[in-house]
C-alpha cells in the first residue's frame, strides 16, 4: 500500500538572525514523532532579508546536513513583508506555516494547530494574551492601533495577533493573488477570510539577539496598515475641511453683523495669527493624509518587483 505523504512548508523570514538559525532548526525537529505520526514531510525555508551578519552561512551549514532546508537570499533588505511573500511563492507544501526565527513562535504549538486543520479549519492563527518583556509605551500604542484599525476598517485585525499561522494551500494561494507592492500581511490575512481558529498563548521573549523593529519602524508599519485597509482618514480630511469652511462662514457673518450694529471694528492680531496657524496646520495635516495615499498609488503603478533573489538553494 502506497502512503501519500503531505508536505508542510515552514517559512522563516530572517534578518541578522545568525544566533537563532540553528536553534530554530533544533526546536522545530525536536518532536519528529509528530511529523511521522501525521505522515508529513517537511521543507524548511529560511528567507534571508539581506542580512549583514552570517545568517546565510548558518543556513548553508544546516543544508549540508539536511536537504529539507532551503534558502532564499535577497539582493538587499526588502523588509519582512517581502520575505513573507517570497516564502509563500516558493513554498510547495499542502500546508504552510509562517514562523519567526527568534523562537517567539513556539514550534511546540504545531501539533495542536495541525489538529484544528484536520478538523476542517482553513487557517489556525495565534495571538498573544500578554506583552511580557515589551516596553510599556510600545504595548500601549499597539493596543491603540488595534482598536483604531477595527473601528475604521472593515477588515478585522485581532489584538495581539502574531504572524505565526498554519494555513492550507488554498489560503496561501488567495494571499498570493493579492500581489500589491505595499503589503500589510496582518490585514491581508483578515481580508482573505476563510475559517480561522485562534490559539492564545503568553508572550515568549526572543531567545537570542535583539528585535529589529524599533518604535518608529512599528509606527511606520501601522501607518502602512491604516492606508492599506481603510479610506477613513481621507473622509476625516474632507470633514475637517467642510467644518472649517462652515466655521469661517459663521464667523464672517458674526463679524459683519457686529460691525453694522455696534460699529465694533475687527481687532486683535494675536488671535488672527493663532487662527491662521491653526488653519494652516489643519491644511498641512490633510495634505499629509492625501500624500500618504498618493505615495502608495505611486509605488503601485511603478510595478517594481516586491523582492529580488540573489541566491536560492
Name a few traits of the molecule.
single chain; alpha/beta; 2 domains; Spore Coat Polysaccharide Biosynthesis Protein SpsA, Chain A
In terms of topology, how is this protein built?
Layout: E1 6-14, H1 21-28, H2 32-37, E2 40-48, H3 55-65, E3 69-74, H4 80-90, E4 95-98, H5 110-118, E5 123-128, H6 136-152, E6 161-168, H7 169-176, H8 185-192, E7 196-201, H9 215-229, H10 232-262, H11 269-302, E8 309-312
Describe the model.
The chain is α/β, with parallel strands linked by helices. The chain has helices at residues 21-28, 32-37, 55-65, 80-90, 110-118, 136-152, 169-176, 185-192, 215-229, 232-262, 269-302; strands at 6-14, 40-48, 69-74, 95-98, 123-128, 161-168, 196-201, 309-312. It folds into two domains: 6-230 and 306-312, Alpha-Beta Complex (Spore Coat Polysaccharide Biosynthesis Protein SpsA, Chain A), CATH 3.90.550.10; 232-302. It contains eleven helices and eight strands. It has an eight-stranded mixed sheet with strand order 7-5-6-4-1-2-3-8, sandwiched between helices. Strand 2 (40-48), helix 3 and strand 3 (69-74) form a beta-alpha-beta unit. Helix 6 runs parallel beside helix 9 and helix 10 packs antiparallel against helix 11 (269-302). It is elongated. The mean pLDDT is 78.
Amino acid at each position: 500500500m502506497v502512503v501519500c505523504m503531505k508536505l508542510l512548508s515552514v517559512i522563516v523570514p530572517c534578518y541578522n538572525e545568525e544566533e537563532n538559525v540553528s536553534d530554530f532548526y533544533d526546536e522545530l525537529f525536536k518532536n519528529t514523532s509528530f511529523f511521522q505520526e501525521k505522515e508529513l514531510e517537511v521543507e524548511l525555508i529560511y528567507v534571508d532579508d539581506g542580512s549583514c551578519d552570517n545568517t546565510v552561512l548558518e543556513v548553508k551549514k544546516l543544508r549540508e546536513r539536511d536537504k529539507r532546508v532551503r534558502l532564499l537570499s535577497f539582493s538587499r533588505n526588502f523588509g519582512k513583508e517581502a520575505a513573507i511573500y517570497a516564502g509563500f511563492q516558493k513554498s510547495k507544501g499542502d500546508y504552510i506555516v509562517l514562523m519567526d526565527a527568534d523562537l517567539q513562535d513556539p514550534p511546540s504549538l504545531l501539533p495542536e494547530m495541525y489538529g484544528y486543520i484536520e478538523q476542517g479549519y482553513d487557517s489556525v492563527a495565534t495571538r498573544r494574551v500578554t506583552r511580557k518583556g515589551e516596553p510599556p509605551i510600545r504595548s500601549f500604542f499597539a493596543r491603540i492601533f488595534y482598536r483604531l484599525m477595527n473601528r475604521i476598517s472593515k477588515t478585522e485585525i485581532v489584538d495581539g495577533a502574531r504572524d505565526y499561522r498554519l494555513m492550507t494551500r488554498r489560503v496561501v494561494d488567495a494571499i498570493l493573488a493579492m500581489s500589491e507592492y505595499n503589503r500589510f500581511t496582518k490585514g491581508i490575512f483578515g481580508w482573505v477570510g476563510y475559517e480561522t481558529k485562534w490559539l492564545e498563548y503568553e508572550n515568549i521573549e526572543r531567545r537570542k539577539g535583539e528585535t529589529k523593529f524599533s518604535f518608529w519602524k512599528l509606527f511606520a508599519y501601522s501607518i502602512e496598515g491604516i492606508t492599506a485597509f481603510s479610506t477613513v482618514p481621507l473622509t476625516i480630511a474632507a470633514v475637517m475641511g467642510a467644518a472649517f469652511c462652515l466655521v469661517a462662514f459663521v464667523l464672517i457673518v458674526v463679524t459683519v453683523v457686529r460691525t453694522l450694529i455696534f460699529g465694533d471694528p475687527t481687532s486683535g492680531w494675536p488671535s488672527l495669527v493663532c487662527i491662521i496657524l491653526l488653519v494652516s496646520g489643519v491644511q498641512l495635516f490633510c495634505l499629509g493624509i492625501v500624500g500618504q495615499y498618493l505615495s502608495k498609488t505611486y509605488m503601485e503603478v511603478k510595478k517594481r518587483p516586491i523582492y529580488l533573489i540573489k541566491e536560492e538553494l
